[in-house]
C-alpha cells in the first residue's frame, strides 16, 4: 500500500512539474518555490514578504523574479529603480489588473492609482495636479489650512497638562481636517462623524492589505451582497465620504471654487477635455476624490506618528532640532514653508524618517506596456514589476548602517542639506511617470506639523512604561500596509 502511495505521489509530482507553465522570464534569477504555489508560502504576510524580498535582493541582485501561484513578478532595486521609473518611465507606467474585490467595488472603470497609463489617466493626473496646486500645494493656501488645524491639535495636547497620552487620534484628526478643507474648502466641526470614520477607514485599509481573499474573484461580490466582512465595511465607509461630498454639489458655484471637489466636478459638468479629447465621468469624480482623500491621510499620518516616536527615543536629536527652530523662527511666530531651507536638520530628519520607516515598501506594482529591456533582460509586454524601494533604503551599499536612525547622513560637514543628486537612492514617493501625486503636499504638511510640534513642546517618555527604539523591520511594524509603529504613549511638555 505504502509503495503504491509513494509511486502515486511521485507520478503526481512529475505531472505537476510537467504541467507547470514555462517561465516567460527564464533568464532572470530568483527563488525556485514549489510547483503551482511558487513562493506563496514563503511570503504569507507583509512582514515575511518584505523580509524575503530583502534576502532575495541580497542573494540574486538588483533584478530577480518571484512566482505567486504561477504569476511571475519581477522585483527591481538599486539603480534599476531609476531606470525603470524615470528613464523608461512611460514603458513601465501601467498597473497590473487590480485585485478582484476592488473590481467589484469600482466596476471595470478604475480611476487613478490602479489605472493603466492611458490618455484618461494622463488627463486625470493633470486635473488633480491643477487642483492640488490651487488647494493643496499653493503655499499661501496650504499654510493657512494646515496651520489652523495644527494649532487646534497642539492646543488640545496642551490641555492634557503633560499627562501620558497616545498622539494617534490627535494627529489623525488634524491631518483629516487638512484633507477635509482641501477637498471641500472647510473643516468639519469638532466631534463630526467624518473624523472617526477616517480612522475606521484607515484601520479597514490596513486589514484589507492583510486579507488574502482580496485577490479572489467573487469574495468582494459576496461580501457586498451579504453585507458581511471587512470588504463590505470598507465599501460602506467609502460611501459615507462620497455622500458627504455630494452634499456640496447643491451649493456649487463655478465662479467660486472652494476646493478640489469643485475643480474635478467642474471638469465633469463642463465636459472639459484635454488635447486628446478625453472627458471624465461622474463616477470618476466620486472615486477620485475618495482615492486622494484616503491616500492623503493614511500615509502622512503614519509618517508623523512614527516621527513623534523617534523624537522621544532620540532626545539629543530632538534638542538639536529645537535649537535650530529657536534660532531661525523663535517662539513668537508660526513656522512657514519658507523656513524649510533654513532648517536643514529638520529637513534631513524628514528624509531619514521616510527612508527609515519606508512605509510603502515596494511602491505600487507597475506593469510593462511593451516589450522592454531592463538590467540586461528582456521583459515581455504585461510583465508585473515591483520597485523595491525599501530594499534600497535598507541596503548598506547605499545607506551606511541602515538600521540606525541617523539624519546626519543627509547633512554636509557644514550642516547644510546634502544635494538632491546624492539622495537619488531615496525614493519614498516613487519617481517619474507614476510618482506620488501628493508628494509636495505631503512634504509640506510633514514639515509644518513637525516644526510646530517641536517649537511648542518637548516630547518625553511616558511616566508609565518606556518607548524602545523603533525597529522598522520587525513583525509589529510590518503587519499592515502602509506600515506604522504599534500604538504608544508619550508626554508633551510645553517649552
Ligand atoms: C508621506 C506621505 C506619502 C508617501 C510616502 C506616499 C508614497 C507613495 C508611493 C510610493 C506611491 C507609488 C508610486 C509608484 O507607483 O511608483 C504613491 C502613489 C500615489 N500617491 Fe502617495 N504618498 C504619500 C502621500 C500622498 C498624498 C498626501 C496623496 C494625496 C493627496 C497621495 C496620493 C497618491 C496617489 C493618487 C498615487 C497614485 C499615483 C498614480 O498611480 O499615478 N499620496 N504614493
Describe this entry's structure for a reader.
This protein has helices at residues 2-19, 46-60, 79-87, 100-106, 119-137, 139-158, 168-184, 193-209, 219-226, 229-246, 260-269, 282-313, 315-328, 344-357, 389-393, 439-456; strands spanning 63-68, 71-76, 366-367, 372-374, 377-379, 384-387, 457-460, 491-494. It is of the alpha+beta class. The strands form 3 sheets. The chain has a 4-stranded mixed β-sheet, with helices on both faces. A two-stranded antiparallel ribbon has the order 4-5. Helix 12 runs parallel beside helix 16 (439-456). The longest helix has 32 residues, at 282-313. The radius of gyration is 24 Å and the shape is globular. 41% of the residues are buried.
Bound molecules: protoporphyrin IX containing FE
**Anisotropy-based shape:** globular
End-to-end Cα distance, whole Å, is 80 Å
Chain-averaged pLDDT: 89
Give the arrangement of secondary structure elements.
Layout: H1 2-19, H2 46-60, E1 63-68, E2 71-76, H3 79-87, H4 100-106, H5 119-137, H6 139-158, H7 168-184, H8 193-209, H9 219-226, H10 229-246, H11 260-269, H12 282-313, H13 315-328, H14 344-357, E3 366-367, E4 372-374, E5 377-379, E6 384-387, H15 389-393, H16 439-456, E7 457-460, E8 491-494
Parallel strand pairs: 2-6
Antiparallel strand pairs: 1-2, 3-6, 4-5, 7-8
Protoporphyrin IX containing FE (HEM) binds near residues 363 and 438.
Amino acid at each position: 500500500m505504502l509503495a503504491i502511495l509513494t509511486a502515486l505521489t511521485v507520478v503526481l509530482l512529475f505531472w505537476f512539474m510537467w504541467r507547470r507553465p514555462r517561465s516567460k522570464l527564464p533568464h532572470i534569477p530568483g527563488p525556485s518555490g514549489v510547483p503551482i504555489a511558487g513562493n506563496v508560502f514563503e511570503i504569507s504576510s507583509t512582514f515575511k514578504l518584505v523580509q524575503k524580498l530583502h534576502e532575495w535582493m541580497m542573494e540574486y541582485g538588483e533584478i530577480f523574479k518571484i512566482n505567486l501561484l504561477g504569476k511571475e513578478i519581477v522585483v527591481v532595486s538599486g539603480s534599476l529603480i531609476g531606470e525603470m521609473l524615470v528613464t523608461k518611465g512611460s514603458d513601465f507606467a501601467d498597473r497590473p489588473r487590480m485585485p478582484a474585490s476592488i473590481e467589484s467595488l469600482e466596476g471595470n472603470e478604475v480611476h487613478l492609482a490602479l489605472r493603466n497609463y492611458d490618455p484618461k489617466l494622463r488627463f486625470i493626473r493633470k486635473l488633480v495636479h491643477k487642483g492640488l496646486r490651487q488647494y493643496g500645494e499653493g503655499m499661501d493656501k496650504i499654510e493657512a489650512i494646515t496651520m489652523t488645524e495644527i494649532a487646534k491639535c497642539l492646543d488640545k495636547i496642551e490641555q492634557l497638562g503633560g499627562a501620558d497620552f497616545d498622539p494617534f487620534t490627535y494627529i489623525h484628526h488634524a491631518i483629516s481636517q487638512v484633507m477635509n478643507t482641501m477637498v471641500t474648502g472647510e473643516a468639519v466641526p469638532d466631534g463630526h462623524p467624518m473624523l472617526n470614520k477616517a480612522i475606521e477607514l484607515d484601520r479597514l485599509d490596513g486589514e484589507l492589505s492583510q486579507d488574502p481573499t482580496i485577490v479572489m474573484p467573487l469574495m468582494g461580490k459576496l461580501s457586498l451582497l451579504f453585507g458581511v466582512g471587512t470588504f463590505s465595511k470598507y465599501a460602506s465607509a467609502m460611501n459615507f465620504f462620497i455622500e458627504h461630498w455630494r452634499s456640496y454639489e447643491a451649493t456649487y458655484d463655478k465662479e467660486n471654487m472652494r476646493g478640489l471637489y469643485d475643480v474635478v466636478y467642474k471638469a465633469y459638468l463642463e465636459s472639459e477635455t484635454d488635447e486628446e479629447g478625453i472627458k471624465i465621468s461622474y463616477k470618476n469624480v466620486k472615486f477620485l476624490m475618495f482615492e486622494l482623500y484616503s491616500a492623503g491621510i493614511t500615509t502622512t499620518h503614519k509618517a508623523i506618528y512614527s516621527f513623534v516616536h523617534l523624537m522621544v527615543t532620540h532626545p539629543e536629536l530632538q534638542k538639536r532640532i529645537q535649537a535650530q527652530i529657536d534660532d531661525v523662527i523663535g517662539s513668537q511666530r508660526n513656522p512657514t514653508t519658507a523656513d524649510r531651507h533654513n532648517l536643514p536638520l529638520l529637513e534631513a530628519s524628514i528624509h531619514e524618517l521616510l527612508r527609515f520607516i519606508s512605509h510603502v515598501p515596494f511602491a505600487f506594482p507597475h506593469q510593462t506596456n511593451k516589450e522592454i529591456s531592463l538590467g540586461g533582460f528582456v521583459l515581455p509586454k504585461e510583465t508585473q514589476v515591483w520597485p523595491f524601494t525599501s530594499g534600497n533604503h535598507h541596503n548598506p551599499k547605499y545607506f551606511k548602517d541602515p538600521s540606525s536612525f541617523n539624519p546626519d547622513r543627509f547633512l554636509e560637514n557644514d550642516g547644510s542639506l546634502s544635494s538632491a543628486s546624492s539622495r537619488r537612492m531615496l525614493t519614498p514617493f516613487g519617481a517619474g511617470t507614476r510618482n506620488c501625486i501628493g508628494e509636495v503636499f505631503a512634504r509640506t504638511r510633514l514639515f509644518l506639523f513637525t516644526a510646530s510640534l517641536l517649537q511648542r513642546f518637548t516630547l518625553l517618555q511616558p511616566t508609565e512604561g518606556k518607548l524602545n527604539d523603533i525597529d522598522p523591520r520587525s513583525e509589529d511594524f510590518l503587519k499592515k500596509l502602509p506600515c506604522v509603529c504599534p500604538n504608544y504613549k508619550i508626554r508633551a511638555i510645553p517649552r
